[in-house]
Amino acid sequence: MNDLWVRGEISNYKRHSSGHLYFTLKDERGRLRCVMFRSRGRRLAFLPSDGMRVLARGYIGIYERDGLYQFYVQELALDGQGALYQAFCLLKERLQEEGLFAPEHKKPIPFLPRRIGVVTSPTGAAWRDLVTVIRRRFPEMPVALAPASVQGEDAPREICAALGALNKKEDIDVIIIGRGGGSLEELWAFNTEQVARAVFASRLPVVSAVGHETDYTIADLVADLRAPTPSAAAEMVVPRRRDLEERVRLHEQRMVRCVTRMLQGAEECIRAYSVSNLGAVLSRAANIEKQEVSRYASRLLQRISLVRDRESQGVQALAGKLDVLSPLGVLKRGYSICLDSRSGESIADSGSVRKGDAVTVVLRKGSLDCEVRGTKEVSAWSSRTRSRN
User: Given this model, what pLDDT does residue 382 score?
Assistant: First the structure.
């Protein structure tokens, strides 16, 4: 049989080292052995004890080792909260399945908010406690109150409207939502699906501070952070100004020590390269420069030698070509050059002279002064050359 509700008084309560809870529910007509596993027990909003009257939800099963029936408890509430608590459990289970309580949806709380938004009743003790703690910890911290009823028929709608109004403000960094303690009925506005979804949809991180330390609501489970009381919420959200000033002072001292050590190190370096060591430093620098100059001079001389050899080879080649074309080369091979004695021009055609003209014949060695006795258009040498060809 599943999803049974059993009312009774706790006896023989024991919390095992494994975290499981073992106890008996009894009334004037009988007893029922019960077990509540650790995964369920750690969600309890109160600490069970002998003599406590409770309402338990669960199912009947057989403990195979002993062959006995026992009640496996899934939810446990103080007696007198039956209908509301059952509604609370059903809504919690449904929202949990949808992922509204999942850690990955939790937004981080800012370290030092610019301004804090608060959703609560302006006439309640929670508002006075929040303001008192905030002013004590950080007097200059701005706080914006979005007033809302925290119990009654209109409370869920007003709480949702206040959350929406604070989310539209650009200078608010975090919202505290809460009220003082009360019964389950008085806290019921924070167990409604309407408020739960408004908290989940908030653009700004929400800190829930509903009731006292043992009070748990749906809003606590959906919120990004749960505080046990409104005063504790103020302490979680607002750092102490004196602590911040002390941290700044410590950081300042640390920076001064670091800068002092850096300056001392620089002073030691300057002292190491003072005038007494300047000569050695300059000598080392000069030696390095000398080596660089010597290296560059050697490379320059090698380059000049290469260029000179290349140019010398070019000049020799040109000289060879000129020697081939020079008239002196012709004379060396046994030929002669005939010049007009008056103009000094070479005579290449027998028709350019007449009988009796003076000519000079230049030989390989020396020259001959001659007189033209006659001319021939075709020489015997050229005729022999043509006949050979």
Answer: 56
CA distance 52 to 74: 17
Residue 25: CATH number of its domain: 2.40.50.140
116-120 vs 206-210, strand pairing mode: unpaired
How far separated are the first and last CA of the chain, in Å rounded?
138
63 in the same domain as 118: no
Phi, psi of 227 (to 5 degrees): -110, 140
Q: Which pLDDT value is given to residue 386?
A: 53
Residue 250 located in a structural domain: no
DSSP assigned state of 28: T
- Classify residue 288: in a domain, yes or no: yes
Is 64 part of any domain? yes
Residues 131 and 220 in one domain: yes
Specify the DSSP class assigned to residue 140.
Answer: T
Q: Between the CA of residue 388 and those of 177, 381, 382, 385, what are the distances in Å?
A: 131, 11, 10, 5
Give the DSSP H or E segment for 147.
strand 143-147
Single out the residue of 216, 220, 210, 230 nearest to residue 132, CA to CA.
230
> Quick one: which H or E segment has residue 181?
none
Pair (38, 140) in one structural domain: no
| 177, 207 Cβ separation under 8 angstroms | yes
The whole-angstrom separation of Cα 290 and Cα 282 is: 12
Residue 69's DSSP bridge partners are: 62
pLDDT of residue 162: 97
Instruction: Work out how many domains the chain is built from and give that number.
Output: 4
Q: Quick one: pLDDT at residue 388?
A: 54
Q: How many helices (H) and strands (E) does the chain have?
A: 11, 13
This prediction's pTM: 0.51
Low-confidence ranges of the chain (pLDDT < 50): none
Structural domain including 312 reads: 273-325
The letter for the amino acid at 367 is S
